[in-house]
């Protein structure tokens, strides 16, 4: 059964990503049992698979999404597209809209919204987030905008415009800056940019 093999591989990959990104994680078993962010992404993957089966299965996908929100505090629309090794630390209050696209190795903290700014139907209304992006607690990334690879978005920032690859975006509205050193690792930039944690 290729689907089950693929699902098991994804679960292992998600557990590895959680172990790498969460310093409080003691074991894979602990994370698998107690991480609402992982529970939400696993449920989303099933709901997304149902969603992709077409209109007949989409109500079931939405019900699963709603039950997951009630259990985890994380709301991911089954129509969103999310890459591999996605991790939500703490979980509570995360909202990911229907037309959001999220790349690989992305990390969100609690309270993040990938939301829309339009009420139009049938158009892309939510952000596209590149690979290896970290979005801090309470950040709002709104509209059909592009967040480039390796971007760091600070806690409580409000992002309504494109952010180029490798940049740091902080504040309300977010100001975009680049790491001070040309070869500075984006993860290291987190510690050199205090507003990331505010």
Automatic annotation (TrEMBL):
Q: Which InterPro entries match?
A: Hexapep (IPR001451), Hexapep_transf_CS (IPR018357), LbH_SAT (IPR045304), Ser_AcTrfase_N_sf (IPR042122), Ser_O-AcTrfase (IPR005881), Serine_acetyltransferase (IPR053376), Trimer_LpxA-like_sf (IPR011004)
Q: Which UniProt keywords apply?
A: Acyltransferase, Amino-acid biosynthesis, Cysteine biosynthesis, Repeat, Transferase
This protein's record includes keyword Transport:
no
Q: What is a single Pfam family found in this protein's UniProt entry? A: Hexapep
The EC number(s) attached to this protein equal 2.3.1.30
Q: Which domain of life is it from?
A: Bacteria
NCBIfam families, sorted: cysE, EPS_EpsC
Q: What is this protein called?
A: Serine acetyltransferase
């Amino acid at each position: 059964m290729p689907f089950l093999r693929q699902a098991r591989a994804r679960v292992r990959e998600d557990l590895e990503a959680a172990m790498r990104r969460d310093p409080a994680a003691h074991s894979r078993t602990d994370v698998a049992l107690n991480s609402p962010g992982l529970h939400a992404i696993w449920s989303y993957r099933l709901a997304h698979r149902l969603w992709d089966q077409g209109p007949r299965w989409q109500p079931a996908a939405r019900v699963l999404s709603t039950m997951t929100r009630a259990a985890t505090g994380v709301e991911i629309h089954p129509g969103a597209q999310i890459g591999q090794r996605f991790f939500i630390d703490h979980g509570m209050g995360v909202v990911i809209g229907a037309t959001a696209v999220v790349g690989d190795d992305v990390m969100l903290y609690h309270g993040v919204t990938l939301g829309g700014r339009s009420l139009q139907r049938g158009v892309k209304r939510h952000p596209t987030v590149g690979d290896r992006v970290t979005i801090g607690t309470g950040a709002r990334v709104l509209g059909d905008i592009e967040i480039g690879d390796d971007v760091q978005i600070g806690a409580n920032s409000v992002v309504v415009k494109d952010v180029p690859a490798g940049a740091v975006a902080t504040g309300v509205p977010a100001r975009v800056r680049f790491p001070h050193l040309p070869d500075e690792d984006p993860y290291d930039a987190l510690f050199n940019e205090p507003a990331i944690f505010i």
